[in-house]
TrEMBL record:
<dbReference type="GO" id="GO:0016705">
    <property type="term" value="F:oxidoreductase activity, acting on paired donors, with incorporation or reduction of molecular oxygen"/>
</dbReference>
<dbReference type="Pfam" id="PF00067">
    <property type="entry name" value="p450"/>
</dbReference>
<dbReference type="InterPro" id="IPR001128">
    <property type="entry name" value="Cyt_P450"/>
</dbReference>
<keyword id="KW-0408">Iron</keyword>
<dbReference type="InterPro" id="IPR036396">
    <property type="entry name" value="Cyt_P450_sf"/>
</dbReference>
<dbReference type="GO" id="GO:0004497">
    <property type="term" value="F:monooxygenase activity"/>
</dbReference>
<dbReference type="InterPro" id="IPR002397">
    <property type="entry name" value="Cyt_P450_B"/>
</dbReference>
<dbReference type="GO" id="GO:0020037">
    <property type="term" value="F:heme binding"/>
</dbReference>
<keyword id="KW-0560">Oxidoreductase</keyword>
<keyword id="KW-0479">Metal-binding</keyword>
<dbReference type="GO" id="GO:0005506">
    <property type="term" value="F:iron ion binding"/>
</dbReference>
<keyword id="KW-0503">Monooxygenase</keyword>
<dbReference type="InterPro" id="IPR017972">
    <property type="entry name" value="Cyt_P450_CS"/>
</dbReference>
<keyword id="KW-0349">Heme</keyword>
<comment type="similarity">
    <text>Belongs to the cytochrome P450 family.</text>
</comment>
<protein>
    <submittedName>
        <fullName>Cytochrome P450</fullName>
    </submittedName>
</protein>
Length: 387
C-alpha cells in the first residue's frame, strides 16, 4: 500500500493493528501505529513521555526558492499543536479564552445567519456539491469572524492556509511551491498587521496579541488557528452528512426525531474522526502495549482507529445515531484536547437542524464518494446532494 492509498482508506490498516499483539510499525507513516482505544488514551494522558514535538511532521520538504519567499516574513514559530509543557500552556491560554463557552455562545447568531444564508443560496437548485457550497465556506467564515478579520480578506486567507498545508503535504513542482509560498507570506503579513491593530479587541487575534509577546509566535499561532479552526469542522460537516445519507434510515430517523442531532454529531465524530491522528515522539525508553520503544521513536496516535475499537464500542463499524453514548477520543484527550470542539459541535448542530427543517428530502446524488487523501481532515473530496 502506498501513502495515498493509506490516507484514502486507513480503516483496514487500523483493524489489523488493533488485532495484532503490541504496536504495529506502518512504513507509510514511518511510525508505530497506536490503534487501540486504551493505548491512544494512555499516550494522550502522558505528554511527558510522548512529546507533541513533530505532531504534524511534513510529508514534503519545500525547496529553497519556496523558503526564500518566507524569509523575513513574521511567522515560523512553534504553535500550540506541536509544543509541550509551559510553552504549550502559554500558547493555549489565549485560545481557551477566545473559544470559551461565553465567546462561542455570543457568536451563535452570526453562525446561524451565515448557515441559513448559505443553505438559502442553493435551496431552490435541487442539487448541490456540499463541500464547496457549504462545508468549506461556513467554518472558514466563522473562524474569520472570530479572529476579527475583514470579511473581504477571509477567502484569500483561507486559501492561503490551504496553500500552507499543500507546501508541507502535497508534492508540487518548484514553481507551484513558490506560488504557494507567496500566498502564505501574504497571509502572514495580513495576520501580523491585523494583530498589531487588535491589542484591545475581544477577538481571537486580540487574545493572541495580548497573550503572546513575540510577533512570530502571534502570527504562527494565528495562522495555525486559521487552518485548524475550520478544517476539523469542514471534515465533520462532510462526513456527518455523508454517513447520515449513506444509510437512508439514519437520515429519516433524524428527520423524525431531531432531538437526536447531538447524538448524531457524536456518532459521526466517533465513526470518522475528522482528524485521524497526530504523531508523538517518545522521550525516554519505555514499553507501550508490550512493544519496547526507544527515545526518539515516533508513534502515530490514531483517534480514527480508537473510535472503531470493539472492546469499547458495540458494532463499531456500524453508523448508528441511537447508540448509547460512550466517550470517544476524536477531539483528543488531556492537555491537548481540541479547544475548538464546542465551536465545531455548535456549527454541526445548527447545520443539521437547518437541513432537517429545510431539506428533509436530502439524498446522495452520487454514491461513488472519494475520501480526500489526507489524515488531517478526513472528509469526502466532493459530496453531490439532491432533494
Amino acid at each position: 500500500m502506498d501513502r495515498e492509498a493509506l490516507y484514502r482508506g486507513p480503516h483496514p490498516v487500523y483493524a489489523r493493528a488493533r488485532a495484532a499483539a503490541g504496536l504495529t510499525f506502518v512504513e507509510e507513516l514511518d511510525a508505530w501505529l497506536v490503534a487501540r482505544y486504551a493505548d491512544v488514551r494512555e499516550v494522550l494522558s502522558r505528554p511527558g513521555d510522548f512529546s507533541s514535538r513533530g505532531a504534524l511532521r511534513p510529508d514534503v520538504l519545500p525547496g529553497p526558492r519556496a523558503f526564500a519567499e518566507l524569509a523575513g516574513v513574521p511567522g515560523g514559530a512553534p504553535v500550540v499543536l506541536s509544543t509541550d509543557g509551559a510553552a504549550h500552556a502559554r500558547y493555549r491560554r489565549p485560545l481557551t479564552r477566545g473559544l470559551s463557552p461565553a465567546r462561542v455562545t455570543a457568536a451563535l447568531p452570526f453562525v446561524r445567519d451565515t448557515a441559513a444564508g448559505l443553505i438559502g443560496s442553493f435551496a431552490k437548485a435541487g442539487q448541490v456539491e456540499w463541500m464547496a457550497a457549504y462545508a468549506r465556506p461556513l467554518p472558514a467564515i466563522v473562524i474569520g469572524h472570530l479572529l476579527g478579520l475583514d470579511p473581504a480578506d477571509v477567502p484569500a486567507a483561507v486559501r492561503a492556509g490551504h496553500r500552507a498545508e499543500d507546501l508541507l503535504f502535497t508534492p508540487m513542482p518548484e514553481d507551484e511551491q513558490v506560488a504557494a509560498a507567496r500566498e502564505v507570506a501574504a497571509l502572514r503579513r495580513l495576520l501580523d498587521a491585523h494583530a498589531q491593530a487588535s491589542g484591545t479587541a475581544r477577538t481571537l487575534t486580540g487574545e493572541l496579541a495580548r497573550g503572546l509577546d513575540d510577533r512570530d509566535e502571534i502570527v504562527s499561532n494565528a495562522e495555525n488557528l486559521m487552518l485548524a479552526g475550520h478544517l476539523t469542522t469542514t471534515a465533520l460537516l462532510g462526513s456527518t452528512v455523508h454517513h447520515l445519507l449513506l444509510d437512508r434510515r439514519q437520515w429519516e430517523l433524524l428527520c423524525a426525531r431531531p432531538e437526536l442531532v447531538p447524538a448524531a454529531i457524536e456518532e459521526a465524530a466517533r465513526y470518522e474522526a475528522p482528524v485521524q491522528g497526530f504523531r508523538r515522539t517518545v522521550t525516554r525508553p519505555l514499553t507501550l502495549s508490550g512493544t519496547k520503544l526507544a527515545e526518539g521513536d515516533t508513534v502515530f496516535v490514531s483517534f480514527g482507529s480508537a473510535g472503531r475499537d470493539a472492546t469499547v464500542f458495540e458494532r463499531p463499524d456500524t453508523f448508528d445515531i441511537t447508540r448509547e453514548p460512550v466517550r470517544h477520543l476524536s477531539f483528543g484527550h488531556g492537555v491537548h484536547g481540541c479547544p475548538g470542539s464546542l465551536l465545531a459541535r455548535e456549527q454541526l448542530t445548527i447545520t443539521l437542524e437547518l437541513l432537517v427543517r429545510e431539506l428533509p428530502g436530502l439524498h446522495l446524488a452520487r454514491q461513488d464518494v472519494v475520501m480526500a487523501a489526507t489524515l488531517i481532515h478526513r472528509a469526502p473530496e466532493r459530496l453531490l446532494l439532491g432533494w
